[in-house]
Design a protein that fits this description.
Blueprint lengths: L2 H8 L2 H6 L4 H11 L23 E7 L25 H4 L23 E4 L4 E4 L13 E8 L5 H10 L9 H9 L9 E6 L27 E3 L17 H22 L2 H23 L7 H7 L9 H13 L4 E6 L8 H25 L6 E6 L3 E6 L10 E4 L3 E6 L7 E3 L1 E2 L6 E3 L2 E2 H11 L8 E4 L2 E4 L15
Parallel strand pairs: 1-7, 1-8, 4-12, 4-15, 5-6, 5-7
Antiparallel strand pairs: 2-3, 4-11, 8-11, 9-10, 13-14, 16-17
């Protein structure tokens, strides 16, 4: 919605005629801009789609910290011959280092200690030791091994991955989809965030609500974070002694006051507050049913694994993501922390993979069995990758890896994705991309197209620009992963 449309939507007759001195100018402006400037609002139904959508919703599994691609999905058998040899200057090419390894006198190669094998109809290589469950569903998955970004530190990198810009304050991907698609269930938020607790907590990265902010989009498009313990939403239940009819009367009174204030000042954010109060009231009825797993059959918990009944675990969050998706929530974001492997890869990676292995497999199979996978885009990945050289001490059984933005691996499934494919190639050191590079912007453009949007056209007037998720730099659709 452009600002003229938004302003005209909430402008009252009293406000308009009180500005009589501007009436002639406004009429002239309307003539110049055409009827579109003062058309009826497009929300909450969303904006017009440019393509036939392949997906209706997204489940985004973000591994906070940056998973090690060469220990999971980017198999590099040649590195076994390079154990403890220095990374060649011809490979490093003077690329930027973090302050955590820039003072090292050497950069010894650390081959992955884990076993790899081929899986699926196309013989896709991946870690067979730590991901036995997920390896069963590779025919549904597209691996993008050539992701890259400019950000080398966590805060700008995760902000870039979520919002398309290294600077905070922009709308995140979930907010753009909420804005563009509108609501499919008036009783639940369009965009929900779940923060899963990892089993291992050696190196937790800070994440905050600014990652699911709506930025310059209307506030109702921000993500709603569900808590892992206690009530999913604070104050979702009425206080003791306050029946539902009293709460309804209270909200009606607050709404009336807000509407009076909106009449006086015409601020669209007041209408956001009104909408949020109403959503909160409706959620009092919808959320308890959503989070009540008692009606799930025993087979569901067997599928997602032993942690599925434990609130806050990744398995529990993945099951909740399926329940949210089948109820019409457009975008579900799950954050899983502790993937920042500067040390103890041998000790920490098994815990991390154990947390996500069976639940990721279960989520894809669960969606497929319910006829939802074809219209649900599932994404998995971090904000960057890891270095082939070791940070700190190196042995045959343990090592650490620093941040590496030049190449990393993500996977996608469902919602218009071609299963059983690998896109992009890195060199023998998993240090540089040699074929089909995919920037974060390219990924965002592809996601938007799968949901029916031309990334150039899903934009909002902001500070004199047509602001959009993919920004102003060139972006391309990753056609090689599309069905």
């Amino acid at each position: 919605m452009n600002p003229f449309t938004e302003y005209a939507t909430y402008e009252t007759r009293r406000q308009f005629f009180s500005r009589g001195k501007n009436a002639l100018g406004m009429a002239a402006l309307a003539t110049l801009l055409g009827n579109e400037a003062f058309a009826e609002p497009e929300h909450p139904a969303g904006v017009a789609l440019q393509f036939a959508p392949k997906a209706k919703r997204v489940i985004y599994l973000h591994m906070v910290g940056g998973p090690s691609q060469m220990d999971l999905f980017d198999y590099k058998p040649e590195m076994a011959k390079w154990y403890d040899k220095d990374l060649p200057d011809s490979i490093r090419q003077g690329q930027r280092l973090t302050t955590m390894t820039s003072k090292q006198t050497r950069f010894p190669i650390a081959p992955s200690k884990y076993k790899f094998a081929q899986f699926g109809s196309n013989g896709m290589w991946m870690n067979s030791e730590l991901l036995p469950w997920f390896s069963k569903c590779v025919d549904d998955v597209a691996f993008i091994r050539s992701m890259y970004t400019e950000a080398i530190n966590h805060e700008p990198a995760i902000t870039m991955m979520q919002t398309g810009n290294q600077l905070s304050g922009r709308p995140c991907l979930g907010s753009w989809l909420s804005y563009g698609l509108g609501s499919a269930n008036q009783n639940l938020p369009t965009f929900v965030v779940l923060v899963a607790e990892p089993t291992n907590r050696e190196q937790i990265q800070a994440i905050s609500g600014k990652l699911w902010t709506s930025g310059f989009l209307p506030g109702q498009h921000a993500g709603v974070a569900f808590r892992s313990k206690g009530d999913p939403i604070l104050y979702i239940n009425n206080p003791p002694g306050v029946p539902s009819n009293v709460r309804r009367n209270t909200l009606d009174g607050i709404k009336a006051l807000n509407e009076q204030n909106a009449t006086l000042v015409g601020d669209p954010e007041i209408h956001t507050r009104i909408a949020q109060y109403e959503m909160a009231f409706r959620m009092q009825a919808s959320v308890p049913d959503l989070t009540d797993f008692s009606k799930e059959p025993a087979s569901t918990f067997e599928m997602y694994g032993p942690d599925a009944k434990k609130p806050g675990t990744f398995a529990n969050s993945a099951l909740l993501a399926r329940r949210l998706s089948e109820r019409g929530v457009r975008f579900v974001q799950i954050y899983h922390n502790n993937w920042d492997h500067h040390f103890n890869v041998g000790g920490r990676m098994p815990d991390q993979c154990r947390d996500i292995d069976q639940p990721c497999h279960a989520l894809l199979q669960d969606l497929k069995s319910r006829g939802l996978l074809d219209e649900t885009l599932v994404l998995w990945g971090g904000e960057f990758g890891r270095t082939i050289y070791s940070q700190g001490g190196l042995s045959q059984t343990n090592y650490g890896r620093d941040h590496h933005p030049r190449c990393f691996t993500m996977w996608a499934a469902g919602g218009g994705i071609k299963g059983g494919v690998v896109y992009g190639t890195t060199d023998d050191f998993s240090y540089n991309i040699v074929e089909n590079p995919v920037h974060v912007r390219d990924l965002h453009a592809t996601i938007l197209q799968l949901l029916g949007f031309d990334h150039h056209k899903l934009s909002v007037k902001w500070q004199g620009l047509d602001a959009r998720l993919t920004g102003v730099l060139p972006s391309k659709i990753v056609k090689g992963i599309l069905a």
